[in-house]
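Postdoc handover notes: sequence design on the structure in folder B. Input tokens:
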């Protein structure tokens, strides 16, 4: 063990001793840790910006105005710059940390919602290097998304080192992201609101206080080294009168449509590049060559593009150029992020919004010269509106632009336009640029983390596969005896094929107890009532919980409809809440719940950090192969704990895996592995009989 590691371990022990001695409340403890996260996030942002400048100085030259720098180098140099970035970034991301691919914020949200706040520390290192090279070599992306992922990864790594719970890890991720945004934009309020409004969606004091502290500390660190000047120095803007507000409202409608195109084209490009049969580590080369050609004609879209945005804010770009740059920037961003480079989407959104706003302002002056609206003010308002619409955080966007420019006099049109753009965007697409990725995968986050987790599970994952049933032709005497021998309040009635026919409750039996000499005449078919609230095996737990509420029931029959609704189990309200408690309230963190025996005893086995148990439906191409032939341990690094066979779904049991038994339709595997290996396995098995999502079991 190195001396540095010994010192770190001593520091951790001192922290534990302080916590045990003083017993601070949760908020105080998190505020203290957040101070450290703020320092780390602030220096991380400084390191990243310094690295971008160093790499750009090596490949192009130093300076903020890349348009002028590109004019000083030969045309072939300009074209080869993105190629150089591609050959470095592609293999670096593919082999070391695939989470660093793209803009990174969805990966942070995924860690918050689905991974208990766990982000691998190596992601921060790879993201810093890959994004710095991407931007310096011309990738049409921003610095802000990488900073969010870098800060979040470093904060998560600190929390994992301190053995924090998932809830604390999520708060630390918010602190790291807020620190990164605050330090990058010189905007402490915006950094905090970004974490609270977009990432965590949680304004509780125990979350709010540490994030504010981390944001303030990071901004103080950034200002000490980078100065206090706003990111975009702008001339003084002001409204000429309230009659301008309708023009800003029109701008909001236009910006909302542009944001919609921005989100959809970006993910369309990612999907198209993903489908191409080309070595994944080299896919950025497919975007690099056309990028180089674009830079020859439109150097304004090279890199972050802050210089061109300042030109728009100062009103120095004409209408035609700004309109063209909207399309060119969209193409450049899609080529960069779609092909596999690493970078953020904030700066492109600012660029697109600025050009859209500036073009609209110039157009208004052309059509109604009597208004003489300031084109720069429309560009500034457009920047905030597009960021707010695309990210789903209009409040954060308003604060970011206010802090970045220091301009308050256009706050009214800024607010009006941002809200209008957000409403237009949500009218056509409920997801933001950060959550649309999950929707395309079949996972919805629009109702919050708790609902997203319940949508990750399905009735088949938690149902009782041995429900009490009564055949249609069972006589009354036998039905009564069943209720006398058990504490069941109802039984489901099935026919000879296992189809659900109805339900008999104890109250139905009580109604005929006074009848004499009919015990063998009255059958179950005569007593039963229609079974309401039947759910499919593939229905999510959220669907089941809603159905339970509608029926005011304690359980629901689970069926598999292959022509006929065959009863395969029962899902109970209690089982759903057990999943909720485990995944949301963390009552059984990092454990495997093993259910066995008639007494339904539960044991808990601790898992290593970032390991999960999962119920997995094998894809169709695996059927007919044995576990030995599939060799999942070698291919994916996962282990099969048990197999639930499909031969008799009504009496399915977990069995130890037989390596030579071939998989059949309907078989389910209970597997364990690192979350990254499980995600890779899921990505390769997307044809899972309609169940495309990871279903974490604990």
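Designed sequence:
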């Amino acid at each position: 063990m190195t001396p540095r590691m010994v010192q770190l371990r001593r520091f951790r022990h001192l922290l534990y001793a302080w916590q045990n001695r003083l017993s601070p409340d949760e908020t105080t403890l998190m505020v203290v840790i957040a101070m450290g996260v703020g320092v780390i996030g602030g220096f991380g942002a400084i390191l990243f910006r310094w690295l971008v400048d160093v790499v750009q100085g090596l490949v192009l030259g130093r300076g903020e105005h890349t348009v002028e720098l590109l004019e000083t180098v030969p045309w072939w140099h300009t074209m080869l710059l993105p190629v150089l970035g591609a050959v470095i970034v592609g293999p670096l991301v593919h082999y070391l940390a695939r989470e660093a691919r793209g803009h990174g914020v969805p990966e942070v949200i995924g860690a918050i919602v689905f991974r208990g706040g766990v982000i691998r520390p190596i992601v921060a290192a790879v993201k810093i290097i890959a994004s710095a090279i991407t931007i310096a070599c011309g990738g049409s992306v921003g610095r802000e998304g990488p900073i969010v992922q870098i800060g979040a990864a470093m904060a998560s790594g600190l929390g994992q080192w301190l053995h924090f719970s998932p809830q604390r890890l999520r708060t630390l991720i918010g602190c790291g992201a807020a620190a990164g945004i605050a330090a990058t934009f010189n905007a402490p309020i915006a950094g905090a609101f970004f974490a609270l409004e977009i990432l965590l969606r949680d304004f509780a004091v125990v979350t709010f206080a540490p994030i504010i502290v981390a944001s303030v500390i990071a901004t103080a660190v950034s200002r000490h080294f980078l100065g206090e000047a706003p990111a975009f120095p702008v001339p003084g803007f002001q409204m000429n009168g309230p009659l301008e507000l309708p023009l800003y409202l029109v701008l909001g409608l236009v910006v909302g449509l542009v944001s919609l195109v921005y989100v959809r084209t970006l993910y369309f490009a990612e999907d198209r590049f993903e489908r191409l049969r080309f070595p994944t580590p080299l896919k950025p080369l497919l975007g690099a060559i056309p990028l180089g050609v674009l830079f020859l004609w439109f150097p304004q879209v090279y890199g972050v593009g802050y210089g061109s945005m300042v030109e728009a804010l100062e009103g120095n770009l004409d209408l035609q150029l700004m309109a063209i740059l909207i399309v060119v920037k969209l193409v450049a961003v899609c080529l960069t992020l779609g092909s596999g480079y690493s970078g953020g989407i904030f700066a492109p959104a600012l660029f697109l919004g600025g050009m859209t706003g500036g073009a609209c302002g110039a157009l208004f002056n052309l059509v109604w010269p009597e208004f003489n609206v300031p084109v720069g003010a429309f560009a500034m308002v457009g920047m905030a509106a597009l960021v707010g619409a695309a990210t789903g955080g209009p409040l954060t966007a308003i604060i970011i632009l206010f802090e970045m420019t220091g301009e308050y006099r256009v706050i009214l049109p800024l607010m009006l336009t941002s809200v209008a753009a957000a409403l237009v965007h949500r009218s056509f697409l409920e997801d933001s640029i950060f959550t649309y990725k999950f929707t395309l995968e079949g996972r919805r986050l629009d109702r919050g983390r708790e609902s997203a987790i319940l949508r990750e599970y399905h009735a088949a994952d938690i149902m009782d596969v041995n429900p009490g049933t009564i055949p249609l032709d069972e006589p009354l005497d036998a039905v009564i005896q069943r209720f006398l021998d058990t504490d069941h309040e109802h039984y489901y009635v099935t026919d000879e094929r296992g189809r659900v026919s109805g339900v008999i409750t104890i109250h139905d039996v009580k109604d005929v107890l006074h009848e004499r000499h009919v015990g063998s005449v009255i059958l179950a078919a005569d007593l039963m009532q229609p079974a309401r609230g039947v759910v499919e095996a593939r229905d999510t737990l959220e669907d089941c919980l809603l159905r339970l509420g509608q029926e005011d029931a304690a359980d629901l029959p689970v069926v598999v409809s292959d022509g006929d609704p065959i009863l395969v189990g029962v899902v109970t309200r209690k089982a759903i809440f057990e999943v909720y408690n485990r995944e949301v309230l963390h009552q059984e963190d990092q454990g495997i719940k093993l259910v066995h025996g008639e007494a339904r005893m539960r044991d808990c086995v601790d898992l290593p950090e970032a390991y999960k148990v999962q119920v997995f439906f094998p894809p169709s191409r695996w059927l007919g192969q044995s576990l030995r032939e599939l060799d999942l341990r070698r291919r994916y690094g996962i282990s099969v704990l048990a197999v639930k066979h499909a031969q008799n779904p009504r009496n399915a049991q977990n069995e130890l895996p037989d390596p030579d038994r071939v998989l059949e339709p309907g078989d389910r595997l209970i597997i364990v592995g690192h979350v990254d290996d499980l995600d890779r396995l899921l990505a390769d098995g997307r044809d899972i009989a309609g169940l495309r999502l990871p279903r974490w079991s604990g």
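Context for whoever picks this up: The chain has four domains: 27-226, 242-450, 455-577, 593-697. Don't rerun without checking with the PI first.
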